[in-house]
Amino acid sequence: MTLPTLHITAEHVKDGLYIGPDVSNYGGHIQLAANLGWIKFEFSLAAKGRIFAGAGSGIEAGSSIDAGWGIKAGWGIKAGWGIKAGRGIKAGLGIEAGGAIEAGWGIEAGWGIVAGLGIEAGGAIEAGDGIKAGEGIVAGLSIHSKWIDCRLRIFAGLVNHRSPQLGDDEIRAEIRGGEIAFGNHVAPAIEAGS
Known about the structure:
Mean pLDDT: 94
Number of strands: 24
Oligomer: single chain
Distance between the termini: 52 Å
Shape: elongated
Structural class: mainly beta
Helix content: under 10%
Radius of gyration: 17 Å
Strand content: over 45%
C-alpha cells in the first residue's frame, strides 16, 4: 500500500507558523521542504507514515509529534509534550520534548537529546553532546554521547529482536546523574585538545 505524501512548502508557512491543511492526524507521509527554518505547528503533528524535514528545516509542535514510521529533520525536533515514532528519530541538531521520547528503532541527534520524562528506543541512542531525561533511559542497543544525566535508571542492550552481540550493551558517556541498571559503562572517548 502506497501512502500519499503532503508536501509542506513556503506557501504553508507564515512568520514561522504552519498555516496549511490539518496535520493533526494525516493518513500518509509529511515532507517539509528544505530551508524553511523552524516551523511551528500550533498543536500536534501526526502522520500514519513518516515525517521528514529537509536540510535547514526544523519541526516544533505545541503538543506532540507522532509518526507511524520515522521522524527525520535537517535541523531539530521539539515538542511541548511527547515525540513518538514507530521506527527511528533523527535530527541534525537536537531533539527536545516536554514529555517522553519514544522510538521503535534508534534515536540520533547531532547535538543533544532532552526529555521531561523518559527516553526509550528499540535500538541505539546517540547524541553529539548530552542526553538528559527527567526519568530513565532505556535502549535496546548501546548509548553513546558525551554525557548522560537522568533522575532514575539507565538500561542499554535490552535487545530482543536478535541474540545479543558484543557491544550491544555499551554505555559510552560520562554519567552525571542516574544509575546504570543494565549495561556496560565504557569511558567516553577523549577528544583531541581536551
